[in-house]
Design a protein that fits this description.
This protein has about 120 residues and is mainly α. It has one domain. It has 6 helices and no strands. The longest helix has 18 residues.
């Protein structure tokens, strides 16, 4: 599999790229739920913890996500919070000591015209 080696496109070391891509693979079966809400849904978390290792093993990866992937997930969440979410004054405890990426996410399309632009 060809992977980009540009440092600005890799958030995890290349040996963890596939695990990074698959870290939320359980959402294909369970649906995507925002992390703050996931924390309130113990049954969702339990199912996610059962499905994720199965998917990872199916692709020849260890059952547990590497720490680098878990850390990158938090960094990207902090970056998304900073760049994509409305201004807020609350603090997410899980992001307390997490630094967002230096580069900002650039929104190309607004939600209003994105559907028309993409197709």
């Amino acid at each position: 599999m060809a992977m980009s080696t540009r440092p600005d496109t890799m958030v995890v070391p290349s040996e963890f790229a596939l695990a990074g891509l698959l870290h939320d693979a359980a959402e294909a079966f369970l649906g995507d739920v925002a992390r703050p809400l996931k924390n309130l849904l113990p049954d969702y978390r339990r199912l996610e913890a059962q499905i994720t290792p199965i998917v990872l093993q199916r692709f020849g990866l260890p059952r547990d996500l590497p720490e680098a992937v878990k850390e990158a997930d938090l960094v990207l969440l902090a970056t998304e919070q900073r760049d994509l979410m409305p201004a807020h004054d609350d603090e997410w405890a899980l992001l307390r000591n997490v630094t967002p990426l230096e580069n900002r996410i650039q929104v190309i399309w607004s939600p209003k015209n994105g559907r028309h632009e993409a197709w």
